[in-house]
Structure to design on (261 residues):
């Protein structure tokens, strides 16, 4: 049963562009929508998946996913897409209890996926040189219930890092090749380094720097593509969505090794 303090996604039942809201339930709280007010007390005591009827409208109470949270973020920077974030976390084999780092924080999209994977006993250290970005990311992540495992640091990732024994580090900024050697001491042996870069020149420089480093073994470099489809069973129509994301960027994967003795 839903109770005070639970996070719920309230979704309007509509055929086209349904609205949705994510709220933390509070006794006697209320949510104002274009369809009127939804009182939290109407949700408390129900279950995820229940329907809530309000006059002529119907809402569904759902447990929000990581992608749902991301859709409600206020974006001040270009972000990694959910598919990229999910694959990056999978490459590093993230699980609860791990300690990971990232730079830069941006709007907190990758931070969200990292925290979701290492929660509740792990820790995410998120670095950025822009205090406004960090403040915005903190607000975005406040609705997720994951803030307790995230430590934000206002620091240039190219400066010496205090964190050690990290299981993985994720780089998402314009010149990751400048931070490769600096990150090596913070990673455990066999820890993962994941770089995301949008431009070909950055890919070449980053891979070249990884291969020059005695602390890393370059695993692979690839891109992720996704093709969405429109499906109309009644008319037996299925066709690709023509206005779709074609390219987001390149993922570079390396593993921390010990130099030759």
């Amino acid at each position: 049963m839903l109770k005070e303090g639970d996070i719920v996604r309230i979704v309007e039942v509509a055929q086209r562009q349904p609205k949705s809201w994510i709220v933390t339930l509070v006794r006697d709280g209320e949510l104002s929508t274009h369809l009127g007010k939804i009182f939290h007390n109407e949700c408390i005591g129900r279950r995820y998946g229940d329907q809530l009827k309000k006059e002529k409208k119907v809402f569904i109470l759902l447990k929000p996913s990581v992608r749902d949270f991301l859709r409600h973020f206020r974006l001040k920077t270009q972000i990694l897409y959910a598919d990229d974030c999910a694959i990056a976390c999978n490459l590093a084999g993230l699980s609860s209890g791990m300690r990971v780092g990232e730079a830069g924080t941006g709007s907190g999209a990758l931070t969200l996926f990292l925290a979701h994977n290492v929660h509740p006993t792990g820790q995410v250290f998120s670095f950025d040189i822009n205090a406004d970005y960090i403040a915005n990311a903190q607000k975005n992540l406040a609705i997720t219930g994951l803030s307790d495992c995230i430590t934000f640091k206002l620091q240039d990732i190219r400066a010496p890092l205090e964190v050690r024994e990290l299981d993985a580090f994720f780089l998402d900024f314009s010149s990751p090749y400048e931070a490769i050697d600096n990150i090596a001491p913070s990673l455990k042996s066999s820890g993962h380094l994941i770089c995301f870069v949008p431009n070909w020149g950055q890919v070449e420089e980053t891979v070249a720097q990884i291969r020059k480093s005695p602390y890393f073994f370059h695993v692979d470099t690839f891109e992720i593509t996704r093709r969405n489809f429109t499906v109309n069973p009644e008319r037996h129509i299925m066709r690709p969505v023509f206005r779709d994301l074609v390219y987001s960027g390149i993922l570079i994967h390396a593993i921390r090794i010990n130099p030759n003795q």
Remarks:
- The chain has a mean pLDDT of 93.
